[in-house]
Design brief:
Length: 374
């Protein structure tokens, strides 16, 4: 009898407790009316290949989870199939994150190609049609992550990815990477001499993307286009006015298209040139803050120099696991976010754990005027 009488109070308590957490309904499950706009007042939460710390990377569920957890942008790597369909997949070979090796009918697709001067062996995306790739199922890249979703989710197309963002109950940006453009243009041929980069831009325009950073058009469908290949970003600057970001690898590595090291293309001279075409850089975070014996060292001047050229800085990749957290942060991802946002002063963060970054930013944001006590 007492329990029956208390049930309404228990239900009210649960509703009140849940109201304290910001919930983001899945696409198609939200309310009616105008969508909540993308936030522009704090560093962007960029879901690196979706919420792939929890669900296999670049899959629809990984992107849906990232949106639910509060990502500002969902990020993807764009590659091509044999028949010229753009897909969302990070590696140009399939074996590390799919079950392709278990498909005996594809055994003869294990091939060797020269990639940036080295022979690489594997199952290359451009040796499969979309219909064939849809037979595969994805798996987690790292063995220490949740394995329960292995073998469940297919590879998705770039258009399917865009639809996920557009169907979200609030405005969610997209952050596609033009991945390995030299390799794609070598092995995939489109009619009329069309390039891989042309197909990416064509798809974006088909879905209404465009506009300079923070313009009215951009705020309606936010987009950054990224690439490690500077010549691709220069090329598409004549095709679309959306903001572009130059990705930066280890400074000793050569770019795939210019035969320059990333040390050379992060010089002030190069920044003066490339800032005509890009709004920012996306550096590997160890190029910003070097690491020795798993401890971060004194930061370089890269962020300060980029900001001096009016370039935004979106480093990659922030991960919660002890395997990736440097010892300075006491195995605490929130300490890492605190350091990069407040001490280094970055403008966005690529993270595998969008929920963690969102929670940190919510907990450390000043109370709004409407939520302050009288």
């Amino acid at each position: 009898m007492i329990l029956t009488r208390c049930l309404p109070l228990i239900w009210l308590f649960l509703l009140t407790a849940c109201a304290g957490r910001t919930l983001y309904p899945l696409p198609g499950k939200g309310g009616k009316g105008a969508k909540l706009p993308i936030q522009t007042l704090r560093p962007y939460n960029i879901a690196h290949r979706g919420s792939n710390g929890e669900i296999p990377e670049e899959t629809a569920p990984a992107y849906l989870r990232a949106i639910e957890e509060g990502a500002d942008f969902i990020e993807t790597d764009v590659l091509s199939t044999k028949d010229g369909v753009l897909i969302c997949f990070h590696d140009f070979t399939l074996q590390n994150t799919t079950n392709v090796a278990s498909h005996k009918e594809f055994a003869d697709r294990n091939r060797t190609y020269e990639v940036q001067g080295s022979n690489m062996t594997g199952f290359f995306t451009f040796d499969f049609t979309l219909k064939e790739l849809k037979k595969l199922r994805t798996k987690q890249r790292f063995s220490f992550r949740n394995q329960q979703y292995n073998g469940k989710y297919p590879i998705i197309t770039f258009e399917e990815f865009i639809t996920i963002a557009r169907d979200a109950p609030r405005v969610v940006g997209i952050y596609p990477e033009i991945k390995n453009p030299v390799l794609m243009n070598q092995h995939v041929k489109w009619p009329g001499g069309v390039r891989f980069e042309d197909k990416v831009v064509e798809t974006l325009k088909k879905y209404g993307y465009g506009g300079s950073h923070l313009s009215k058009k951009w705020l309606k469908r936010p987009l950054f286009i990224q690439s490690f290949a500077p010549s691709s970003l220069v090329y598409i600057s004549n095709l679309i006015d959306s903001p572009k970001v130059l990705l930066i690898d280890d400074v000793t590595v050569l770019t795939e298209d210019t035969n320059q090291t990333y040390a050379e293309i992060t010089s002030d001279v190069y920044f003066n040139y490339i800032k005509q075409y890009v709004v920012g850089i996306g550096p590997w975070k160890d190029t910003v803050v070097p690491v020795s014996n798993n401890y971060t060292q004194a930061p370089t001047e890269l962020v300060k120099r980029a900001h001096a050229h009016n370039l935004k800085v979106h480093p990659y990749t922030y991960r919660n696991e002890n395997e990736f957290l440097h010892l300075n942060f006491s195995q605490d991802p929130y300490k890492e976010y605190e350091y990069w946002i407040n001490e280094i002063g970055v403008d966005g963060l690529f993270t595998d754990f969008t929920g963690s970054l969102h929670n940190y930013q919510e907990w450390t944001s000043p109370l709004s005027e409407t939520s302050k006590s009288p």
